[in-house]
Amino acid sequence: MATGAIRRTKPREPKSFDGETRARDDHHDSLRLWLRLLSCSALIENHIRQRLQGEFETTLPRFDLMAQLERCPEGLKMGELSKRLMVTGGNVTGITDLLEEEGLVARVIDAQDRRAFRVKLTPSGQRLFKRMAAAHERWIVNLFDALPAKSKQRLAGLLQDLKIHVRRQERPRAGNSI
Amino acid sequence: MATGAIRRTKPREPKSFDGETRARDDHHDSLRLWLRLLSCSALIENHIRQRLQGEFETTLPRFDLMAQLERCPEGLKMGELSKRLMVTGGNVTGITDLLEEEGLVARVIDAQDRRAFRVKLTPSGQRLFKRMAAAHERWIVNLFDALPAKSKQRLAGLLQDLKIHVRRQERPRAGNSI
DNA sequence: GAAAACTATTTGACATCTAAAGTATCTGGC
DNA sequence: GCCAGATACTTTAGATGTCAAATAGTTTTC
């Protein structure tokens, strides 16, 4: 969850401002940015996780899955959940099984495609999620409260840029090293 | 890993710019920011994870633990690793066990405190980590390449602010709801 | 219309993770 | 010295995650 740093580039002998130095600084920037991004999200994620456990005796993956369903009243197929949650299909199967046992979601047969089904929130799941979502929103708002609104907007914008660039970078091929 | 969105505030009837609207927008901002932060880090984390698996047959937690050790040649105690990696002690025990079996790290008895020991990279662990770290840095730099240097710096700064604010917000008490 | 290729989901083996309980060692106060 | 509590780590049970193989239903192709 932390992806520790590597910074071996000791900047002794500052050198004049040439391409070499520039590239190296840029590397350093990228690594530092990544580590900071990761530690921020881990910090907040852990916080939310503990709250969910402490106040609702539930977990973040369960909450996330239900959150996806809540905004799709017509239900979602397992594969769609997998893509949206950015986890593997097998994982979705497991979480859905548990939520189903708890009566919070239901697998509904899809008449069009008998391989698939739609997962939906049950009424009881909807009620519970409504409560959890309200609490979740309070926690987030409190955590982010101290950060000026302007910073939040800038940050959200920059993260959006980053996401787009990363996705673009990933597309070209799956196995291209270097 | 995704913490799905909740945005129930349909902005029908824009209302004049009063406190109500303002507060609600702010909530929306915080949530959106959080979801974006999380999806960014999940995106990149998954990428790195697959690379580590594909090219070194290892995992992110193993890499992270070794990264922490690499910059502490005198070794780290289990508890220190736990804090730095932001995971529980039991987790560190498991990963260390595996790395030890693979001969990449070693538990060294601490003469001062017989409850504890220092975990260190073995020479073989150092060699392997050096190779992995170089590749890891390339991957990160490539992923972040397209983002302008200026954006990276701004982003890193804002994330630093966020981290500080979140940590401050967390301190007050562990059990204060709302 | 049957074989081949594809797609949706589950299963199995195993690696992470957490929370809570257990074990051993250390420390401070008497 | 001795013992109560703190500290360092491990263990346990169970949830979450991956990957790869298995199952079953769909579509394509000829």
Describe it for me?
2 copies of one chain form a homodimer. With 178 residues, chain A is mostly helical. The first copy, chain A, is built from 6 helices and 3 strands. Chain A has helices at residues 19-56, 60-70, 78-85, 89-101, 123-144, 149-170, and strands at residues 76-77, 105-109, 117-121. The first copy, chain A, has a 3-stranded antiparallel beta sheet. In chain A, a hairpin with a 7-residue loop joins strand 2 and strand 3 (117-121). At the A-B interface, helix 1, helix 2, helix 5 and helix 6 of A face helix 1, helix 2, helix 5 and helix 6 of B. Chain A binds a DNA duplex (30 and 30 nucleotides) through helix 1, helix 2 and helix 4.
Strand and helix layout:
The structure is a homodimer of 178-residue chains.
Chain A: H1 19-56, H2 60-70, E1 76-77, H3 78-85, H4 89-101, E2 105-109, E3 117-121, H5 123-144, H6 149-170
Antiparallel strand pairs in A: 1-3, 2-3
The structure holds a DNA duplex (30 and 30 nucleotides).
